[in-house]
Recover the amino acids of this structure.
């Protein structure tokens, strides 16, 4: 075995279905959901003691395909740079699990799924879910895999919220946690950006109150929402470095077509997204993030005896999830006497940095998990 | 005369029409526009020497109604806090002029105007204009008023771009200039926000390639564009102070209705805007801003003998037009040997601060203009 990083290679998605009884999974809204299917992928081998399991949580537009290649695909999973042999999440040593969230549209039960009560797509009959609901569903998967305690739960952005929610809901089942570029609660600015994205989707007449399945999709609305998102994922500086004021043609068009490269990029990313993402899932997942609030003592209640190691990571140029929010996570953890390390990585990539700052993240995460695993 | 500030009181809009010949006004695009009407307001009296004229330039959603009250109105003009007896732009001493830009929708010729060639609304037949075209049109108004040299040109945001354009195009006609919360050129991030707003408008089927006059307007698209704008005009901190995570009802709705106060505010501002603004004007004015570029020596060419006093103002929490852009204006001016003062006002209001930080602005502007006037 060398230290050279490799790809985990060919991977396949798996599925677990549960909550098939009349009860279903009880949700924060008071409603129930069932049956629930979770799509997930695993990389590496679970050891005999089942002590080497790492749960990876994905962000808004992510999915269960975090690493390796699906048959016929040119591009690997969304966090392949961090997951694989000798990588930050070293699949020679650890068993890595990545589930798609409920409410999503990549194999797990969501608004695009068939409602068994009506035999039609759920649409807006799908219950509004919370980050805690996502995590409750994931607990079924972890139980199914026979894992009593997760070596680590790790994720960025909405994935980081799930990490914190695992700590709050199942503290005895978590040995260490790495929340990245995330927050204890959405600020009004974060809620505002999400709300504008939702309004863009719902303003599209093709949305039809969520009943667009089998018909024209609200593509233009969702593309606008995604374009707004992309601006917030980058930084002023990274946009300057990537695009500056470069034009697509020789001179201004004096039309409302695409003049600047940055405009072309945003349109491309918007158009691309609508082909792979369900507009209703966009509504449900952003709402779950807006509802998320583990501020104050809600993360670690005062009376609880909790022993979890924490590595909190933020990025200097991330203005969507600014460093002060990660510092507040670290502050709350220290106030509750937890073993917490905070690192701000000096990046110009903005919020996207958690997907791009491979070298620094690898260094921090690899060392932290190794130390946790060795005890 | 006391030093107590007062309202200028009742005011009326005036109109000037020019470029009525077959030629029209030659535009940067190579096209011509004519006839052109400018709506404008004036406050105070022009002195015999015509040496006390201050030109006020408005921002994207502004208009000629900068101060005082229109008959029957409860609210004064958009910069009434700075314009009036004993205010920053003291109408006891100065003659203040504020025109609506061409391309706008508040009385000056724009895409909602009637095209004399077709007797229909221009719509997208209106030529794409630039900030320089706006200023060229304003020069006709200044000539009409018999003013050879403006004591001061002042404005924030898009208004600040017009200020800089006056300096670049008509340096001999400007004695002093106050560009506020503005830039020498739109950055890719600023272009990106504008482009998403335009995409939101154009994604609305009611937009109909700009031919919606007399029919249903693209209200939902324009409302989304305005909501995006509003987020960028405030700061993370001012939103926290104003809204925090306060709910409109007792608890989460678990629906896609308005949960948070910040959502209600944005929807209100979006809905309000569509009643008073033309969607096509939104496209034209944002495009003009994106095209604006007086970077490098384009503001003050090396070979020109120019003697203008400058006061450059920015606001600490303004992330849409960050202070580094105003510092770059000041740097370019000093490189060209100009008499330039730069001030950053310590505000939490974000970009909106130029409309709200009355006390500090009054102090800086009043003193600066007084000194310029006394020579």
């Amino acid at each position: 075995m060398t230290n050279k990083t490799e790809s985990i290679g060919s991977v396949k998605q798996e599925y677990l279905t549960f909550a098939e009884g009349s009860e279903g999974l009880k949700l924060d809204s008071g409603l129930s959901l069932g049956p629930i299917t979770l799509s997930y992928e695993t990389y590496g081998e679970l050891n005999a003691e089942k002590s080497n399991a790492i749960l990876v949580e994905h962000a808004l537009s992510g999915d269960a395909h975090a690493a390796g290649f699906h048959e016929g695909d040119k591009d690997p999973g969304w966090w392949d740079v961090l997951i694989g042999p000798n990588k930050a999440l070293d699949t020679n040593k650890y068993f890595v699990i990545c589930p798609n969230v409920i409410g999503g549209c990549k194999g797990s039960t969501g608004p695009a799924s068939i409602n068994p009560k009506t035999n039609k797509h759920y649409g807006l009959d799908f219950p509004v879910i919370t980050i805690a609901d996502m995590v409750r569903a994931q607990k079924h998967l972890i139980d199914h895999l026979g894992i009593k305690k997760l070596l680590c739960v790790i994720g960025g952005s909405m994935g980081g919220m799930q990490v914190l929610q695992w700590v709050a809901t199942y503290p005895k089942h978590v040995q260490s946690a790495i929340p990245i570029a995330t927050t204890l609660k959405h600020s009004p600015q974060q809620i505002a950006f999400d709300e504008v994205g939702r309004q863009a989707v719902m303003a599209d007449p093709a949305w039809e109150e969520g009943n667009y399945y089998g018909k024209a999709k609200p593509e233009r609305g969702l593309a606008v929402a995604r374009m707004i998102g992309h601006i917030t994922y980058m930084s002023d500086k990274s946009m300057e470095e990537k695009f500056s004021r470069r034009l697509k043609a020789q001179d201004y068009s004096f039309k409302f077509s695409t003049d600047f490269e940055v405009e072309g990029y945003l349109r491309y990313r918007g158009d691309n997204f609508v082909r792979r993402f369900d507009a209703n899932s966009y509504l449900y997942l952003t709402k779950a993030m807006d509802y998320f609030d583990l501020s104050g003592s809600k993360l670690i209640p005062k009376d609880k005896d909790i022993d979890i190691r924490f590595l909190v990571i933020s990025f200097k140029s991330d203005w969507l999830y600014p460093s002060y929010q990660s510092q507040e996570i670290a502050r709350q953890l220290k106030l509750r006497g937890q073993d917490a390390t905070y690192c701000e990585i000096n990046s110009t990539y903005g919020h996207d940095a958690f997907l791009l700052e491979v070298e620094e993240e690898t260094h921090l995460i690899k060392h932290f998990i190794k130390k946790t695993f060795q005890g």
